[in-house]
Input
Amino acid sequence: MSTARLLCLYMFAACQGPGGVASSSFGTSITTALPITTTGAGSTSDGMSTSSSGSTTSTGSSGEDSAASVAGSTTLVLDVGTEQDVENPQPAGCKGKIDFLFVISRDQIMAEEQAKLVAAFPEFIETIETKFAEFDYHIMVVDADNHWGWPECTEQCPTLEGLCGMAEDYPCDHVPSACDAELGAGTIFNAGLNAPNKPCDLASGHRYIEKGQPQLVETFTCLAQVGTSGYNRLGDAVAAAVSSVMTGSGACNEGFLRDDALLMVTIIGPPDQDSLGKPKEWADIVIGAKNGDADSVVMFRIGSEACPVYDAACRLAKYYFQYHHLSNQTDADFGPAFEIATDLVETACSAFIPG
Output
């Protein structure tokens, strides 16, 4: 037998693994009949589908789509960089980096709801910090109005009469900036009925809170009390807040939205019948802002759990984002609903791969 033939046979034997399965230091491709779970719309990476209420139901695979191997044949595939050769390069979820966007109605009925939101906020933060040890957050509050303060009262300044006289310490001397009066811009100075009527002290220098904010609860209270002297354009405000017009370089909300952070949107207010846009339009803007990944967004709608057809903001949350939770603004305490919503955050983070 020639030396060349002996060398060939030796190399073939060396390529045989246990049981005659071909192997290579560059990687091995073995056809199996095991089911493969993939992530798609309405499911998580561990094969759990998420319902509209935030619960999960198990899904499985029969393995019918598995490729069948040909009896008596062995396929050797030499590849480079398979997952069997190196550690999984995918990050372990969002690691607690989350951008929280609160969109709050300024409708005249909102005084009680704003108070309940403020009361529930400490519990909300405690829950998040417990679930995410490396919790890094941005928190921005946006009102659902494209005006600053109470225009009628601003016109009456400095002498306030009638209802405007009830807006204690209305800041007649404040000259609003372009961002103050822009729909979708983070609030930093709320004015009008049931509003602080003073600027909020944000250490970040931006229109949103960053981790490390001194007196976090007090600062959020100042931001979240957007008052009851305005409109209820919830859906329009959600889309505007994350749009490139608002988050681009030099824009009002620059720096708020991060590619490597999960986005949680909390929408609070009565049925949205004031918005000019449509749920599909808003969803496209939000998903586009997250690099086309709808599963990197958690929607939490506090309004009506029944989600009436005339509530455009509820339809946005329910029909365009698999991770969503609906609750009632009439609930005595928003804390339990926040707990469910943060469960969805935890689930979404486990499958989140930053773009």
